[in-house]
Amino acid sequence: MSLLNTKSLSIGYGKGPESKILQKDINLAINEGEIISLMGQNGVGKTTFIKTLAGLLDPISGSVQYGEQDLSGISSGDLAQKMSLVLTEKPFNFNITPIELISISRHPYSNWIGVLSPRDKEVIEWALNETHLNYIANRKLYELSDGQLQKVMIARALAQETALIILDEPASHLDLNNKIEVMMLLKKIASQGKGILISTHDLQVSTQLSDRLLLFNFNEDTNEGVPEDLILDGTLQKSLYLDQYGYDMISGTINFDQKGPSVSVSGDPETKFWVTMALKRKGYIVKDEKQKVEIICSAKNHFKILQDKKKLEVKSIETLLKNLSSI
Amino acid sequence: MIHQYFEESKSKWLKILIGIGIAFILCFIINISLGSVLIPIKDVFLFISGSETTSESWDLILANFRMPKALTAIFVGSALGVSGLQMQTLFRNPLAGPYILGISSGAGLGVALVIFLGFYFGGFLSVTGIGRSWLLVVSAGLGSFLVLLVIAVVASRIKDSVSLLIIGLMFGTASGALVSILQFFSQAENIQAYVLWSFGNLGSLSWKELGVFIPILGLGLIASILLSKQLNALLLGENYARSLGLNIKRTRLLIIINTSVLAGTVTAFCGPIAFFGVAMPHLTRMLFNTSNHLLLTPVLILFGATLMLLFDAISQLPGFGATLPINAVTSLIGAPFVIYLLIRKKNLGYSFNT
Question: What are the residues whose beta carbons fall under 8 Å from the beta carbon of A249, sequence distance 6 or more?
Answer without folding.
Answer: A231, A236, A237, A242
